[in-house]
Amino acid sequence: MIEPKPAIQPQPSNGGGTTGKKRRFGGTEAQIRSALKFYRVLAYLTGAMLLLLCAELVARYAFGQYLFASGTNALTGQPFGVGFADAEPNGVIGGVNISVTILIVHGWMYVVYLVSDFRLWSLMRWPLTKLVLLALGGVIPFLSFIVERKFHADVEAELAAHPQAPQRY
Question: pLDDT of 65-89, one tens digit each?
């Protein structure tokens, strides 16, 4: 004879949800919060540099202008302060090409941003798709701000939902 089962199945009480597996993190809560803060700062900095880079690329390719600081005006021979000058032929001799500096700074900042992404991803033990989405935040304008807000809320929610998960030591 078949035994009747109750309509509501008892759920495991170990915080693992319906799968019965306990949620574990790759570090302590302090390590996760530190990684989250590091990621948050770099997400905003990288996003701001990406927007600046986009503006610089529009100035370069749409208007043929570079952003320079100091140097000498190639046409008049007068000292050049800070501003836009022709890209071809060179509008400024000497000086600092701020347009190229923006490219270099954003490139290196993106590398550090990827390190922060990997650190947060590995401590949270998320799937690979989340790492890819985190990485895309540094190359698609405005996405770093959106992704940062979403993942910050996700981390806070997971830490609150699983208070025993980060205690490794």
Answer: 888 888 887 778 888 888 888 866 6
Q: What are phi and psi of 72, to 5 degrees?
A: -125, 135
Q: What is the spatial distance between Cα 43 and Cα 46, in angstroms, rounded to a whole number?
A: 5
Which residue would you say has higher pLDDT here, 156 or 164? 156
How does strand 82-86 pair with strand 65-69? antiparallel
**Least confident piece of the model among 12-26, 40-54, 74-88, 118-132:** 12-26
- Bridge partners of 92, per DSSP, are 73
Other beta carbons within 10 angstroms of residue 63's beta carbon come to 11
67 SS3 class: strand
Q: What is the dihedral of CA 146, 149, 154, 155, to 10 degrees?
A: 130
Residues 36, 105: Cα–Cα separation, whole Å: 22
Q: State the Cα–Cα distance between residues 31 and 37, nearest whole angstrom.
A: 10
Q: Where are the alpha helices (DSSP H) in the chain?
A: 29-63, 98-124, 128-136, 143-161
pLDDT surpassing 50 at residue 16: no
DSSP state of 138: T
Bridge pairing between strands 72-73 and 96-97: unpaired
Give the Cα separation of 38 and 114 in Å (integer): 11
